[in-house]
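Encode chain A's predicted structure.
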Amino acid sequence: MDLSVIIVNYNVRYFLEQCLHSVIRASAGWAVEILVVDNHSTDGSKNYLPQRFPTVSFTWLDKNLGFSKANNLALKEATGKYILFLNPDTILPENCFDKALTFMNARPNAGAIGVRMLDGAGFYLRESKRSFPSARASFFKMSGLSALFPDSPVFSAYYAAHIAEEGDHEVDVVAGAFMMISRECLEKVQGFDEDYFMYGEDIDLSYRILKAGYKNYYVSSISIIHFKGESTKKYSKGYVKSFYGAMQLFVKKHYEQKKITRFLISTSISVGGLFSSARRSGKKVLKKQESRFSGMSQVAVVAGQKRFEESIGLLRYAKKPFIIRGRIALNKFDIGIHLGELKDLAELTRKYELDDLVFCEGPMAFSEIIDAIRTHRGKLDFFIQAEGSDSIVGSNNKNENGVVIAKNEARIKVRR
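Encoded structure for chain A:
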């Protein structure tokens, strides 16, 4: 095999459905195997996914082993020259593997590569490239100052702000949401450290890859969607405990001989945990206030006529009611009834007061959808439906769970 794609699933069957469609599209021309390990999901993943993806190998665990153990379990079965550890809440462009594998094959010293990640609203995710935690960087990150000054090389050192978003660069840390590693490298570093249950394992593995003499790269020419927030809500009690515990574990493991550095970083992490808990309380209050303003949204669908009718059928099952304004054509050759063409989306958004947009993959490539979301970020909420899928997914907030529209979800009447 050229590539083994390993995905750990936990209660995100509809996001994984879209992800698998994109992985299969990206596999064209390569010998690729897809291995999914399910960490004892309770959302019906086992009954829903295998019949839709007969070429995917599924392993169903009877308990949640955590991210590291589940990945290592699949790694024992993987046969690829390269291994891609991929989150289930991601969407890949069709040329993803072409670019990534070509990049890896041209660099024998490449241990791992990561890519440019965008959230579901089209905004750049700073964790696409990161530095190892120092005392100062840890404090600025954990206290929230890095979020206030995202472009500062000082305050955002944790997110490697000194490295440009554009271009290919050597980096310290590759994000576990998309982490492509050579088998040779993985055999030397022996996979993920299973002391990490969730969070921090990618930092630890990146650290050991560099210590083994390889280099980690950030490749900006590949852009993917990473919806985030699907398995654990940011600022939730579980997130705070898992994330800050993982940071403490990393410091204890790798800075054991540097007592002063270890003390300073550990203190910074502890203080940051307190700050994060306070922010969590503030988020709850803000969310309650915002819920009063939720109402009917106006949506358009980017698709041909047939796919438009299919999407309408699914939109009828949305928990949040929509006013469906109509269809947006891909180009001038579409002679059916439509609101206008995709190239005029900004004008159509204003004219029809659109709030949401559904992209139907098939007529559009995943790469085109990703580009459109990035181009029009901040103006609309976006949803994606892969051809052959029975769900529509989207997320306009990287810190909260996204939106799923599917037939077996609660049905609310849609106004036309």
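The chain is about 35% helix and 20% strand.
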